[in-house]
Amino acid sequence: MFTGIVEELGEVTAVEQLADASRFRLRGPLVTEGAKHGDSIAVNGVCLTVVESADGEFTADVMAETLRRSSLGALRVGSRVNLERPMALGGRLGGHLVQGHVDGTGEILSRTPSEHWELVEVALPADLSRYVVEKGSITIDGVSLTVVEAAETHLTVSLIPTTLALTTLGLKEIGDPVNLEVDVLAKYVERLLGAGVVPTAQSGDAR
Q1: pTM for the full model?
Q2: pLDDT of residue 202
Q3: What pLDDT score was predicted for residue 200?
């Protein structure tokens, strides 16, 4: 489980095309401290498993399904990426609960700079729009953000200078793809209500 608070702006140093997957080597001296085979690291919001780690770099295999559902297939040598290690049990939840399971991809539609922030508009896939609400949480390329406007076809977020400087969202241009993960709580609520499950009072509750 992650929080959507990016720890490091990393870089892709190698990409190897396999039969039904890709193997990436990524530089991230901070997130690789103590990292070992089998550990998890989120790359642009996608939870990947460390295959090898040495000298400030790690390798991870990305299967075809992940390449299809995320923007990782567009990464090339030199691409910058957002990196985050899983949250330690008992740690601070600085953003919101992020699984690292991308629901789909969006596209940067516009960027409107202001004196203290930048308003970014992102295209929203039709099957995800029902999970996005104004002032709710959304994960974009692994960054936990608050939704400013939620429409059927798009959403907007405000990026502060820190986010622009320390994540890939400051580098994205109009037309660039981004990974989207909606709030998992919204999906659970939909599932429960669709199954006709209604919360009941627990023993000892006031009547």
Answers
A1: 0.88
A2: 57
A3: 60
> Which domains, ranges and CATH numbers included, belong to the chain?
8-84 (2.40.30.20), 104-192 (2.40.30.20)
Q: Which residues contact 89 (CB under 8 A, 6 or more apart)?
A: none
Pure H helices in the chain:
64-69, 161-166, 184-194
Angular region, 78: left φ>0, alpha ψ -120 to 50, beta rest: left
For tokens 């400051």, what's the residue?
A: 170
Tally DSSP H helices, then E strands, for the chain: 3, 12
Amino acid found at 3: T
pLDDT digits (tens, 9 = 90+) for 77-110: 999 999 999 987 777 777 788 888 999 999 999 9
Comparing CA positions, the residue from 11, 17, 8 lying closest to residue 62 is 17
